[in-house]
Design brief:
Helix 4 packs parallel to helix 11, helix 7 runs parallel beside helix 8 and helix 13 packs across helix 14. This protein has two domains: about 160 residues, Aspartate Aminotransferase, domain 1 (Alpha-Beta Complex), CATH 3.90.1150; about 280 residues, Type I PLP-dependent aspartate aminotransferase-like (Major domain) (Aspartate Aminotransferase, domain 2). The chain is globular, with a radius of gyration of 22 Å. The protein is about 40% helix and about 15% strand. Strands 4-10-9-8-7-5-6 form a seven-stranded mixed β-sheet, with helices on both faces. It has a four-stranded mixed β-sheet with strand order 1-2-3-13. It has a four-stranded antiparallel β-sheet with strand order 11-12-15-14. It is α/β, with parallel strands linked by helices. It binds pyridoxal-5'-phosphate. Pyridoxal-5'-phosphate binds next to helix 5. GO terms for molecular function: pyridoxal phosphate binding; transaminase activity. Its cofactor is pyridoxal 5'-phosphate.
């Protein structure tokens, strides 16, 4: 049996069709912005693996830092009063970069566990404050927050809901702020207010005493790179503040450079949330690492009395603050700073978006949206959504035949190239994608 056959027999892939006979594409190696499959084909990777390999592939400095830490100390327990230096150093360095007083880190293994940990903290927090009824969570349609039980219950994408079970009693959806889908004739400003008022109405409907938190991605990623109208985040944060609802900014995709800044919440959207969740780019995808980052104020409010039965924080993982994953993140931060990676993104990102917007001339393109190195092209060839989805899937196949990997989601082609791309790579992505769309017509 060949490798693809063994894969089919033994491995359950995330978000895959268990009934499909299709063989997986086996990616064997990578260098820079390119990856190579098991048949030796070379692809320009316009999705950074999965929004994460910010530095591109085969970075030897990253490999060396990981190897050095493995030799020095591969692992030690973070439980109770034990720890190891890399997590302390990482939390200290990150504290200087996070918005406001978001200085307290719970390290996790992934984005899902970061979101799960954030929500569990919020529940614990309100229990400690004597408000145990404050448990409800508001998320947005088309959001993606992960694959653990509670995080998956906050996913708003249609295709993420299948025969699994979800938490239903304490989660509530509100509409996403996609300007492309706003009612005909409505201004962007009015559309923003519509969505903000919808959040307020949802809080009032559930009861402010029961709503614990609102969770939002600064720019929705896998739900279709939805860039909110100007002022949306600021206004939703104000609504949350009004009703003592905590604001969780899920920056699993947007933090660590993709939008040209370390964190998008404050630097791009001007807000200081109560909690930020991160993963993916934090280690440039070289090691599995995530974190829930809490405001010092929140932590202080519930700490301080070690005799209290509430002060025992029974939440965390064997691999929280794993020394090797933290060493990878520290090296990524060092490279980001030294190579002025955010400046590079602020230069190449707008060029990429500008080139991508030329695809609007193609009749099959309904919308091109995004910011810096987070973008999407929405294919609209018919009033029938299934036809649009089938079209985008054919575009994806054409792209692969021409040596480009994009990420299809329904009728969208999603793009999130490594942050090290140069303008020539941006040109190649746009040219191949444009040719593929044109030849799919
Ligand atoms: N949150 C956001 C915004 C994401 O995009 C993702 C994954 O794509 C997650 C959470 C879950 O992260 P992970 O797959 O590392 O668990």
């Amino acid at each position: 049996m060949n490798l693809a056959g063994k894969d089919k027999k033994h491995i359950i892939h995330p978000w895959s069709n268990l009934g499909s006979d299709a063989e997986s594409m086996i990616i064997e190696s990578g260098k820079g912005v390119h990856v190579f499959d098991s048949e030796g084909n070379k692809f320009l990777d316009s999705i950074s693996g999965m929004w994460c390999v910010n530095l591109g592939y085969g970075n030897e400095e990253m490999a060396q830092a990981i190897a050095d830490q493995c030799v020095k100390l591969a692992y030690y327990t973070p439980f109770g009063a034990m720890t190891s230096p890399p997590s302390i150093q990482l939390a200290t360095e990150l504290s200087a970069l996070t918005p406001g007083d978001l200085n307290c880190f719970q390290f996790t293994n992934s984005g899902s566990t970061a979101v799960e940990s954030a929500i569990r903290f919020v529940h614990y927090y309100f229990n400690c404050l004597g408000q145990p009824e404050k448990k409800h969570i508001i998320y947005r349609e088309n959001a993606y927050h992960g694959s653990t039980y509670l995080a998956a219950s906050l996913n708003g994408k249609r295709c993420d809901r299948s025969y699994f079970d979800y938490v239903t009693d304490i989660v509530h959806a509100t509409s996403d702020p996609n300007p492309f889908k706003r009612p005909q004739g409505m201004s962007i400003e009015d559309f923003c207010d519509l969505r903000v008022n919808e959040l307020r109405d949802k809080i009032l409907e559930i009861g402010p005493d029961k709503v614990a938190c609102f969770i939002a991605e600064p720019i929705m990623g896998s739900g279709g790179v939805i860039v909110p109208p100007p002022g949306y985040h600021k206004k939703t944060l104000d609504v949350c503040r009004e009703y003592d609802v905590l604001y969780i900014s899920d920056e699993v995709v947007t933090a660590f450079g993709r939008l040209g800044h370390y964190f998008a919440s404050e630097e791009v959207f001007g807000i200081v949330p109560d909690i930020i969740t991160v993963a993916k780019g934090i280690s440039s995808g070289y090691q599995p690492l995530g974190a829930a980052i809490f405001s010092q104020k929140l932590v202080d409010r519930i700490s301080g009395d070690s005799a209290s039965e509430n002060s025992y924080y029974t939440n965390g993982f064997t691999y929280s603050g794993h020394p090797v994953t933290c060493a990878a993140a520290l090296k990524y931060l060092e490279i980001m700073k030294r190579d002025k990676l955010t400046d590079h993104v602020l230069e190449v990102g707008p060029y990429f978006m500008e080139r991508l917007e030329t695809l609007m001339e193609l009749p099959a393109v309904g919308d091109v949206r995004g910011r810096c190195l987070m973008a999407c092209v929405e294919c609209v060839v018919s009033d029938n959504e299934d036809e649009n989805i089938a079209f985008a899937q054919r575009v994806d196949e054409f792209c692969q035949e021409k040596g480009l990997i994009v990420r299809p989601y329904e009728n969208l082609c999603i793009l999130s190239p490594p942050l090290i791309i140069e303008k020539k790579h941006a040109d190649q992505i746009v040219d191949i994608l444009g040719d593929s769309i044109a030849s799919t017509m």
